[in-house]
Amino acid sequence: MTYANEKIQLDTKVAVRDIMRRNPKTIDYRATVADAARKMCNKDPSGSCIVLKENVAVGIVTEQDLNCKVVAKDIRPSEAHVYEIMTSPLITLHGDKTVEEAAHLMIKSRVRRLPIINDKGIVIGIVSVRDIVAVSTEINELMSELVVINQTKDVTSGMCSRCGRMSDDLRNVDGSLICSSCSEEDRL
């Protein structure tokens, strides 16, 4: 945890299996693009389908694939097949890996969705950039609240967090101890 520059960073070892969405949508590789689009629009729109060939995950089709590889090229979705537009090979991560490792793999591979696999290599879930941002935001908000409740209210002397000078008149401003000079600058 770091308190420098009023930033709070939490190093967490949350496993991706704890934040993944289970049972991601799947589609057979011989299906049409129209079939994939319909599947993506059903109930819980996830924006992707894992492509299966003989029950083995071989790729992924995303909304971006539909837009860039079909719509932008004016191809009829009912005449194109999933295997023609899927992104392959499929980049996956084991469910025991951390959210941090998932984020690094997404950045390195330049993907926004990451299928999560079990020990047998079977896709058991999917994690998106949104999922990672949501859990990170929640953790940072909790840490901010913990810092606030852990502060001592009776500290009046010490070093100003902003200018670094010693002061006998420190005030708690958003979790930082600020001297009266710096507080007055904020009001101007």
Task: Describe this protein's structure.
The chain has helices spanning 33-41, 63-71, 82-85, 99-109, 129-149, 180-187, and strands at residues 21-22, 26-28, 48-53, 56-62, 93-94, 113-117, 123-128, 158-159, 166-167, 170-173, 176-179. The two termini are 32 Å apart. It is α+β, with helices and mostly antiparallel strands and 188 residues long. Residues 1-11 have low confidence and may be disordered. Strand 10 (170-173) and strand 11 (176-179) form a beta hairpin. The strands form 4 sheets. The protein has a 4-stranded mixed sheet. The chain has a 3-stranded mixed sheet with strand order 2-3-4.
Quick structural summary:
The protein has helices spanning 33-41, 63-71, 82-85, 99-109, 129-149, 180-187, and strands at residues 21-22, 26-28, 48-53, 56-62, 93-94, 113-117, 123-128, 158-159, 166-167, 170-173, 176-179.
